[in-house]
Amino acid sequence: MLSSRTMNTYSSRPVVLCLSGHDPSGGAGLQADIEALLAQGCHAAPAVTALTVQDSVNVQDFRVLDRAWVLAQAHAVIADLPVAAVKLGMLGSVEMVDTVLEIMQALPGVPLVCDPVLRAGGGGALGKDEVGYAMRERLLPLATIATPNLPEARILAELPNGSADECAEKLLPYVQHLLITGGHGDEAEVHNRLYSRDGSRHSFSCQRLPGSYHGSGCTLASTLAGRLALGEHLASAVESALAYTWRTLRDAEQLGHGQFIPRRLPLDFCS
Known about the structure:
Residues 23-259 form the Pyridoxamine kinase/Phosphomethylpyrimidine kinase domain. This protein is α/β, with parallel strands linked by helices. It has a single domain, classed as 3-Layer(aba) Sandwich (UDP-N-acetylmuramoyl-L-alanine:D-glutamate ligase), CATH 3.40.1190.20. It has 8 helices and 9 strands. Helix 4 crosses helix 5 and helix 7 (216-229) packs antiparallel against helix 8. Residues 1-8 and 121-127 have low confidence and may be disordered.
């Protein structure tokens, strides 16, 4: 008979509900969320929003799940687990944006990290541009923070050649905090910029790494959601998430024929 002393009935790890797509290569999407949150000491509750056909090179196709299935997954988690934060990844359709709005009605006051996944790392589209518009108009006002890279920020702001500052000026009326990540130019250092509606700004720079990475945005957003779930102050949580993400990229591996896969867990994690 199993002793009750070996059973951990109550967990102290905060739960993060992840609404993201599935990437069969394991580089991005829900697997990235799960690994990054485990590394923060959090428990990931993954609800699948979309299925994709992709590898480390690019995305070939995707299918958004039925709205009822996504709602059922999320409500099952919410009814059972104390959700401390929510991380949004790939939504893929305007209908899924509305689905997330309904889910968040059951989680008032819970931090929401919105990673507006509109393009795969290889450049393939993961939703039409009207999805970005719907996210900006309907989801960003609910979000604690959005974490677009500069190309995604340009889509959301409808500024095809806009700078990070110009995109932030356009987007801050919609979202309380905005982290626009760099690394898409040829600069020697990567500059990540945190903008807040109260006018405060923080800039975080890091060494540019030689390579292209699959799942870096998912890693950053899920890590940030985990840090907020742990109770860390937003600016500090952003700094922690950026530092962790950079280390996963520094230690990344080229497992396939395309981009490098971040190493989000140490080799001895399960030993």
